[in-house]
Amino acid sequence: MNVCNNSNFQAFPAICSTDDGVIISWTDQRNGGANSREMAIFAQKLDINGNAQWTANGVQVIDLPQSQNNTKIVHDGANGALVAMNDESNSYPNRVTIQKLNASGAPQWGTNGVQVTTSTGFTQYLNNVCTDGNGGMIVTWNDQRNSFNPDFYTQRISSAGTKLWGNSGVHISSGTGFTDVCSVTPDGASGAYFAFYKSSPSYTVFAQHVSSAGALSYSGTGATIISTANILSQVKVTGTTEGNAIISWINNTAKIVYAQKIDSTCAALWTANGIGVATATGEKTSYCEAVTDGGG
C-alpha cells in the first residue's frame, strides 16, 4: 500500500506501533521541489487494516526552513507519537529537534518543536531513540561541543516537552575512536541502557546506564564489555523483563555473534567477554539484532 504517493522524493522511513495501528514518519522533498536540497519530515497514521487516518500523503511534522532529516519515532502512549529529527533550520550547526503529534496528527509543541539541548554553537547528529515508558522519549545524539571527535549525549523529553535531564543533556561517552552509532533501550524504570564501541586503539564495546533522574550508573566512558584486536561491529542492546539488558555484537574476524547480559551498574552477568550465540562454521554474521524473550 502507498503511505505517500507525492511525486517528489521520500526516503528514510521510521515506524512505531500504537494501540490502534502504526505511525510512520519519513523525509520528504515536496516543499523544496525536485532539484532542491530542502527536506521536511512528514508522518502518516495507518489503522490495523492499513487505512490512512490523517491527511492524504501525510501531515508535516514541523514547519521550519532549510532541511530536516533522519527521523526517529516512538509511541506517546496515547495513540500519537514523538518524532525526533536532524534540524538544519539554523543553517549551521545542525541540531536535534523533537515534535509531538497527537492521535489526530496535530503538532503539540508549536512550530519549532523542542530541542534536546539549549547548548549552541556546535554540531549535533541524531543517533537513536527509545520510549521512557511514560509518554516521553529518550534520545541519544553525536555531539561536537567538546572536540571535533563527537561524544555521545542523551536527553529525556517528557510527554509535555520538558527536558528532564538538564538543559545540556547527559554526557555518556568521550574520547577518540568511537563509531557514530549508539544503541539505546528502555530499562523499564524510565531510564535507559546504551551500548556503543570504538575501533581505536583496539575494538572495545562499552555499556552505560542512565537512571530516570539522569544519573550515570558508570562513570567515565562506560563499562568495558569486551576489548580485542578483532574487528567488531553491529553493537546492539535490548532490555529484559527484570530491568537488566543484553548487548550483542559481531566478531567479524572470528565470524561469531556474541552477547553479554548486564545489570543496572553495567556489571557483566554472563561469562567474561560474552557468550557465543552463532558459532557454526559458515553461518552468516553480517547483521544481528537483539530482542527480549519476555523471560529475562
Description:
This protein is mainly beta. It is 0% helix and 45% strand. It has a four-stranded antiparallel sheet, with no helix packed on it. It has a four-stranded antiparallel sheet with strand order 5-6-7-8, with no helix packed on it. The protein is globular, with a radius of gyration of 19 Å. It starts with 9 loop residues before the first strand and ends in an 18-residue tail after the last strand. The mean pLDDT is 90.
Structural topology:
Layout: E1 10-18, E2 21-28, E3 40-47, E4 59-60, E5 68-75, E6 81-87, E7 95-101, E8 114-115, E9 124-131, E10 137-143, E11 151-157, E12 170-173, E13 178-186, E14 192-198, E15 203-210, E16 223-228, E17 232-239, E18 245-251, E19 256-262, E20 275-278
Antiparallel strand pairs: 1-2, 2-3, 3-4, 5-6, 6-7, 7-8, 9-10, 10-11, 11-12, 13-14, 14-15, 15-16, 17-18, 18-19, 19-20
